[in-house]
Amino acid sequence: MGIVNVTPDSFSDGGLYADTEAAVAHGVRLAAEGAAIIDVGGESTRPGSEPVPVDVELERVVPVVERLAAETDALLSIDTTKAAVADAALDAGAGMVNDVTALRGDPDMAALVAERGCPVCLMHMLGEPRTMQVEPVYDDVVAEVCGHLARRMAVALAAGVREEQVLLDPGIGFGKTLRHNLLLLRDLERVVALGRPVVLGTSRKRFIGALLDAGPDQRAIGTAATTVLGVAKGAAVVRVHDVRPNVEALRVAQAVLDAGERGVDVGLSHEVG
Ligand code: HH2
Question: How many C-beta atoms lie closer than 10 Å to residue 218's C-beta?
Fold first, then answer.
């Protein structure tokens, strides 16, 4: 899943793709690099960010979704917490909703997703973006994230969402310390055991910067490490800014995971190693 942030203030690429042309060109490039899903968002969820009015968010994302639907074969996902934005994006050609509040942000979202019958990603977040990084505390972060996701899935199903349309995401960086993020990655199998495809969003996040002492645009290789580990532990989707290095890391990792199963056997006699 490649990320297109049509925002002036996203934490790692804010302002780079804030106008329609730049956002569409970026989405087309990510699809060409191998993204099967393009996640379009018009509101930053970085720690401390303020909500964006619905009309502004609509103006940002709808033209981009329309154009990407015409210009790529990728499944388009709309990253929003607002039912009106999801509704308009689905009309414009999106086929999936990515809601970082797991249907808590807007009382109309659950019914909308149920009615549209589209896939929906439910993510764990402690509190809300404005306050989530203010001393997050858990007794057992993995158990609490899993419990929350199971409860949010139950709410979605009660609203009429079909179970096979639900994806789950532990919400890396959303109300978590470095240690919480590492524990969630180490024990990702426990999230996978909830029985739904898991989306992993580690890309360029602050915990990688803390480990590498690197700024957001220097975190692609660290991100690829989490992609490989995450997929080895059963993640189904990785949400990334830098599609190409992650696709390459994944192709090699997948070949190892599948060794002996698919009969991959390419002659390498002229290469060293
Ligand atoms: N992370 C961000 C935004 N949306 N959605 C899911 N499902 N999982 C995530 O981990 C996730 C997400 C934050 O990253 P980004 O979009 O790059 O930044 P910003 O929110 O500042 O636009």
Answer: 13
